[in-house]
Amino acid sequence: MAVAHLLPVFGLFLRCRGIQIMQISRAHMAVHSLVAGTVILSATVFAEAIDTKRSGQIVSKTDSGAAEKSLLTVTSDYIIGPEDILEITVWKNADLSKQVQVRPDGRISLPLLGDISAVAKTPTQLVEEISSGLKAYMENPTISIIVKEVNSYQIYVLGEVNHPGKFPLKSKTTLLQGITVAGGFTAMAARNKIVVFRFAKDGEGLTKLKASYDDIVVRDGSNQNIELKPGDQIVVPSETMVVLPSR
Questions:
Q1: Phi, psi of 236 (to 5 degrees)
Q2: Which residues fall within 8 angstroms of residue 86, CB to CB, at 6 or more apart?
Q3: How confident is residue 244, by pLDDT bands cut at 50, 70 and 90?
Q4: What is the three-class DSSP state of 203?
Q5: Between 114 and 41, the higher pLDDT residue
Q6: In this structure, which long-range contacts are made by residues 37-45, counting pairs with CB atoms below 8 Å and at least 24 apart in sequence?
Q7: Are residues 178 and 218 in the same domain?
Q8: Residues 176, 220 within the same domain
Q9: What's the half-sphere exposure (Cβ side, CA atoms, 13 Å) at 65?
Q10: What is the Cα 169 distance to its own chain's centre?
Q11: Please, are residues 198 and 183 in contact by the beta-carbon 8 Å criterion?
Q12: Residue 111, domain CATH
């Protein structure tokens, strides 16, 4: 009889223990879910952090490129050079408006005017020349010129240097700096017979400038260490070159 009376009590005890076990199991499941959620959240945050870092690297590269290009900002005294791309607009005349690239010979071609020399001129000077030419065909022409692309800021270093070739100008550069960019003189270089060929101010032909390394460095010839201009051609001859006397 005592056992029979105790059975309901024992059953109630087991049911209570079962509830506690279920509650504990649910609590464990909740903890596991919380931990899993935290892990997933952490992974997501970590992935986002990596993406942000990568994005930051891309932005920084873009900013660096923009900063580099900003050195070539076109100002009012910008000198047009070969391979520059110009957008020439004649107000209320779409047929005469044109986008042109300055040819290697320094000229551009325009309707009615034909070939015009553009190198060694500022956009303002070129506007005045085009406007003057169009006055024969229309009254008070209004011209605007935008330098769309700067491609002429290049120098050419030839002859007895270690790395001859074409080099971009990204800031003010002197003759010695230009030779340094080309790797410096070779053992056979006639360093006191440097020649720089430069477009003339009117864009017609080339002027010839001479410089001596020893004069620049040893003697008082710093004025020979000229500031290079777009399109300059630096020639460093060899000591073995035979120079014939002029007739």
A1: -110, 105
A2: 80, 99, 100, 101, 102, 108, 118, 123, 126, 145, 146, 147, 148
A3: low
A4: coil
A5: 114
A6: none
A7: yes
A8: yes
A9: 5
A10: 11
A11: no
A12: 3.30.1950.10
Amino acid, res. 95: D
Range 67-83 burial, b when 16+ CB lie within 10 A, else e: eeeeeeeeeeebbbbbb
CA separation, residue 48 to residues 52, 54, 59 (Å): 6, 10, 16
- Taking the mean position of all CA atoms in its chain, how far away is CA 50? 27
How far apart CA 220 and CA 4 sit, in angstroms, is: 124
The domain total for the chain is 3
Asked whether 68 and 170 are in contact (CB, 8 A), the reply is: yes
pTM assigned to the model: 0.53
Residue 94 domain boundaries: 85-149
Give the per-residue pLDDT at 62.
Answer: 37
Question: CB within 8 A of 199, min separation 6: which ones?
Answer: 81, 106, 119, 120, 205, 206, 207, 229, 231
Give per-residue pLDDT as tens, 137-158. Answer: 999 999 999 999 988 888 999 9
Q: How far is Cα 104 from Cα 20, in angstroms, rounded to an integer?
A: 91
Angle at the Cα of 100 from the Cα atoms of 94 and 103, rounded to 5 degrees? 155
Q: Is residue 127 part of a domain?
A: yes
The per-type count for the chain, helices as H runs and strands as E runs, is 4, 10
* Amino acid sitting at position 7: L
Residue 25 forms part of a structural domain: yes
3-class DSSP state for residue 190?
Answer: coil
Residue 126 contacts residue 80 (beta carbons within 8 Å)? yes
Q: Which residue's structure tokens are 């464990």? A: 28
| Identity of residue 242 | V
104 contacts 82 by C-beta, under 8 angstroms: yes
